[in-house]
Automatic annotation (TrEMBL):
UniProt-listed SUPFAM superfamilies: FAD-linked reductases, C-terminal domain, FAD/NAD(P)-binding domain
UniProt domain Glucose-methanol-choline oxidoreductase N-terminal: residue ranges: 92-115, 292-306
Protein name from the UniProt record: pyranose dehydrogenase (acceptor)
Cofactor(s) needed by this chain: FAD
Top-level class of the enzyme under EC nomenclature: oxidoreductase
Active site, renumbered: H549, H592
Catalysed transformations (reactions): pyranose + acceptor = pyranos-3-ulose + reduced acceptor; pyranose + acceptor = pyranos-2,3-diulose + reduced acceptor; a pyranoside + acceptor = a pyranosid-3-ulose + reduced acceptor; pyranose + acceptor = pyranos-2-ulose + reduced acceptor
Species classification: Eukaryota, Fungi, Dikarya, Basidiomycota, Agaricomycotina
Main location: secreted
InterPro entries from the UniProt entry: FAD/NAD-bd_sf, GMC_OxRdtase, GMC_OxRdtase_N, GMC_OxRtase_C
GO MF annotation, one: flavin adenine dinucleotide binding
Amino acid sequence: MPHIELKDAINRSFDYVIIGGGTAGLVLATRLTESADTSVLILEAGEENLDDPLITKIGLYGQTFGQEKYDWCSMTVPQVNADNTVFPWPRGRILGGSSAVNFTAWNKPSKEDIDAWEKLGNEGWNWETLDKYISRATTYTPPTLSEAEHARRGTPRVFKELWAKGPVGNGPIQISYPPYRTDLDVKIQQAIQGLGYPVAPAPLDGNPNGVTIGAMSVDPETVERSFTGNAYWKPNSARPNLSLLTGAVVHRLVTTETDGELVVTGVEFFYKSGGGEAYTARASKEVILSAGTLRTPQVLELSGIGSPEVLQKVGIPVKLALNGVGENVQDHIHSTVVVELKDDVQDETYDVLRNPGEAEKNMALFTKAQGLYTMGINTFLYAPLPALSDKGQEIISSARKEIEAGIAAGKYPAGLADQYKIVLENIEKVPTCEIIVFPGAFGGKNMPAPGKKYYAFVAALNGLFSRGTIHVTTTDPAVPSAIDPHYFEQDIDLKTHREVMKFCRKLAGVAELKEYFGESPQELNPGPSVSTDKDLEDYVKRFSSTTFHPIGSASMLPREKGGVVDNKLRVYGTKNLRVVDLSIVPLHFGSHTQCIAYGVGEYAADIIKGLA
Ligand SMILES: Cc1cc2nc3c(=O)[nH]c(=O)nc-3n(C[C@H](O)[C@H](O)[C@H](O)COP(=O)(O)OP(=O)(O)OC[C@H]3O[C@@H](n4cnc5c(N)ncnc54)[C@H](O)[C@@H]3O)c2cc1C
């Protein structure tokens, strides 16, 4: 029963109602309905657009941003520690959620980053277990290259050995390597190694520190996006026990109380118009919130589940006091160093596609899985700060002193103090910093010049100390919650960002890359006027961006430490409400996030089935 009509959603009861047909939500729905006896209704705010080129074609990065057909078009509140800059926070509002609009980079965190969740009090949430579930979601198809091609690309030994193992797994999401590779990408990988950085010893197996050749969530045959919409939903959409209503925006849970605990009997939603009449879908077993880090806390708070202080301020009666809702929000952030390529460089970059004729030519090539739209993002460097900057140790020591004194003085909430202790323990081991090498102009203050080609060195921070909030400001479900990531509230975040930008400049200027960037690289962004440490700090406050990885707004932690869900993803104080999306992640990790959303969805399915 693929799509159902409104009347079918409201006239019967389902075992499980899942709010949000995004990344984790569709994984869960598909796995639960493997048993024909289990009925699931998915309520998804967006629509199904599985064959839309803006979704399927990798290389059209970011073109869904700001379009309500695909994007929630969320913005942060002005960031007081970043010159009151307001930052866009795109999220997928479409079947498949953010997996339908993401940049398809596929990488995994370090073992230590995930083991930290178990140390925070979440039994069973460690690298070994989560990686098992991530693997269940994927089929990994390495490239098969001739020896000559390996030699041309200088494929590092680690990758030759990894790729020689052949395909791994048989999960729905296809992981492969984009076929198109510029010579410059290979040169940059070698230049990074020339600076003393190793190739990551176990890039997808728990130790990503070092240079990595990026995998992507793309189908190796078609080089199209592989995501929950086409990989989990589509092949299973004919199941009679799996129902989907799109255009359904949930705003509230319907609850009663039994033995001092909330029981959720259904959910209220608006259909299509985004306002007007509210309808109710009923669940006989459980309701599961998979609306993502931005929207899951909104539904909880509008239902009277949250911090009494927050709820009372906007006039929502408190049904369940849970102070952690909408707290502990963590993000990744980046800025870019964009350098112009010399006019005689033959390598093509995404910049070429700004010419409509070239875009059309490459779109035709794409139908044969060729051309620039198959280029993807190939080169990544993961490292802790001291490996990138000679000021790294000093920055960390000063932060350590301040935070340890703060912990001793009881300055931080208990849950955060526990996080900081683990972060400080791991900070010189795990990749809190990342350089993404992007073949084309990307981000920053100045626009690219017509006819010019560029490379962007993306300086990304993956271990922010600042903690933010996402809270409702009104009872009106049509008004988005206030997103306040508190960017740069902790000074270490700003200093680290500055140093990673400096590393990107250093890399662009190495001798091995002069044939591409010239004797003294021409910088589009930040540009030569941004030269001192202070200039760089001022620049990143205004021109950095989210890396689209928010987590934590319904954290899995002990209740007395600000937790919203327990290790079985049950919302504390409720009998039959769970959260299954990235809002449950209690502490951020040094990789892109989609792998974890898949792992959480798969793990949750086994938990609910009683298998884990
Ligand atoms: C632009 C962008 C680029 C990214 N690039 C990468 C990348 O290259 N690599 C990587 O690993 N990760 C990337 N990510 C991150 C990754 O895609 C997300 O972390 C992950 O998909 C989040 O999964 P989720 O299940 O938590 O939420 P989502 O996938 O966002 O799912 C939430 C779903 O709930 C729906 N919903 C929300 N509220 C309601 C409501 N009230 N009623 C009904 N439905 C609702 C939404 O429409 C959505 O479908 C990117 C993300 C974005 C946005």
